[in-house]
Design a protein that fits this description.
Layout (H helix, E strand, L loop, with lengths): L5 H9 L3 E3 L4 E3 L11 H17 L13 H19 L8 H21 L1 H9 L9
Antiparallel strand pairs: 1-2
Helix pairs in contact: 2-4, 3-4, 3-5, 4-5
């Protein structure tokens, strides 16, 4: 067993390293508590991605648009349509679960865009007039 001296402990705490559980094993603790995410959320995203694949979209097709403000706005608009259909009980295109799955997918999209291209999300949604032509 390794002895940790107080100056080491101070250095570890400054880096976010902490003792976990009764074992007092060290952990960075920097990972969110993924165990709290319900399986149903992952399944919802997977169903919607599979639906796209079944339509003929390549696997991870959506990732090619993460750095494209027009694509992000288009998908956000489409997600808003699914939200309104879900809230209004409109099952004309998708059932309630299908609409919820579409919203879950849109959350995946925007989270990945924020993680990888936050400046593109800002350009797509938050900035003033962009001088882009309407598509």
């Amino acid at each position: 067993m390794r002895t940790i001296y107080s100056n080491e402990r101070d250095n570890e705490e400054s880096r976010g390293i902490k003792e976990v559980g009764k074992s007092k094993a060290l952990s960075s603790g920097s990972v969110p508590s993924i165990w709290q995410v319900p399986l149903s959320l992952l399944e919802s995203a997977a169903r919607r991605m599979q639906k796209g694949n079944d339509k003929g979209y390549p696997i991870h097709n959506w990732r090619s648009g993460l750095d494209d403000p027009a694509f992000l706005r288009d998908r956000a608009n489409h997600a808003a349509t699914h939200l309104m259909r879900l809230l209004n009980g409109d099952n004309s295109v998708d059932d309630a679960q299908g609409n919820a799955d579409a919203l879950t997918w849109a959350c995946c999209l925007i989270n990945e865009a924020l993680r990888l291209h936050p400046e593109v999300v800002k350009k797509a949604f938050y900035s003033e007039a962009r001088g882009e032509k309407k598509e």
